[in-house]
What does this fold into?
Amino acid sequence: MTTNRIKNIASKLLSDNYYILKKLTFDYLMKDGRWVTQAREVYDRGDGAGILLYNKEKQTVILTKQFRMPTYMNDNTDGFLVEICAGMLDKDNPKACIIRETEEEVGYRIKEVKKVYEAYSSPGVMTEKMHFFIGEYTDDMKVNNGGGLDSEHEDIEVLELPFREVVDMLYKGEIVDTRTIVLLQYAIINRLIELEEISH
It folds into this structure.
């Protein structure tokens, strides 16, 4: 992590109650040659991984539904979002993380996954980088009912839905989680599940 356009970085811890919030002050070299002092608040919650699970034969995908307080505070009436299965790396590598999260959240023990993207979640304020995966599932991979960990007070509803229905939800604006939109668009573009016609 090197650049000749910033110097004199100073860091002040604002909060570490759950994750880490810092105020960073630094000198930045503008493209016109001027040095200016800037300040940014940066939230470090670690990196994460997410997966779209799909079944070609059944033409279904597995998603989750759970309460998200920040969305409730910003115009999401009941606070619930339909999302891909996802979680924080917690010092695992991304592949190990998403295999673990898949079993914990939706109850499927998968072995083969494919990484398709990695991207910063909200680069203006967060350090988090998301690792995006896809993976095929079958009924015989189900080992429990999922729902998340009681120790983390997770309360996750597992949704197995027809892919066509999910695509319709996407185009109707009923899916508003960025990570989920990214992987659903990947599935559509790459025809992970063939649809004769997509309504939107």
In short: The beta strands are 6-15, 20-29, 35-44, 48-55, 60-67, 80-83, 85-88, 114-120, 129-136, 157-162. The chain has a mean pLDDT of 94. The chain has four helices and ten strands. The chain has two domains: 6-44, 48-189.
